[in-house]
Design brief:
This protein is α/β, with parallel strands linked by helices and 129 residues long. The protein has a single domain, classed as 5'-nuclease (Rossmann fold, 3-Layer(aba) Sandwich), CATH 3.40.50. Helices cover 48% and strands 13% of the residues. The chain has 6 helices and 5 strands. The protein has a 5-stranded parallel beta sheet, sandwiched between helices. Helix 2 crosses helix 6. The longest helix is centred in the middle third of the chain and has 14 residues. It is globular. The two termini are 12 Å apart.
């Protein structure tokens, strides 16, 4: 099954090991799910995980990003300009999810259109883990 991970999922996994986000990443690392991404998403992952406000070590960041890149699906998604976003930076996750027929997992569904394939970490874990 293809999934797209909003950046807050990666932050949550590093911030709170053993919770829903790390369970999702463990399933990704065991290849139960394939993470779909594009260059815009990877750039955001790297930039946000390196924010000074987060105390993440380089090895922690690499332990998440490297398997996603190695085992994930890199795409160039079709633009979907007709769908409004309060924060345009969220559009890339939605576009990749739609392009790949993937479930978009986020910590805040309010950032996205209300659709069944856009779900919170908790909802995803209840349904698929």
């Amino acid at each position: 099954m293809n999934i797209v991970l909003d950046t807050n999922i990666l932050v949550s996994a590093l911030w709170s090991p053993g919770r829903n986000a790390s369970g999702i990443l463990n399933a990704v690392f065991s290849r139960k799910f394939t993470v779909c991404y594009d260059y815009r998403i990877l750039e955001e992952y790297d930039r946000v995980l390196h924010y000074k406000k987060f105390p993440f070590a380089e090895w922690e960041i690499n332990s998440i990003l490297e398997p996603i890149i190695k085992n994930g699906l890199s795409v160039i998604a079709e633009p979907l300009p007709d769908i409004p976003f309060a924060d345009p930076s969220d559009r890339k996750f939605y576009e990749v999810a739609k392009f790949c027929g993937a479930i978009l997992i986020t910590g805040n569904q309010k950032h996205y259109p209300e659709e069944p394939d856009i779900m919170t970490m908790m909802d995803f874990c209840r349904r698929y883990l």
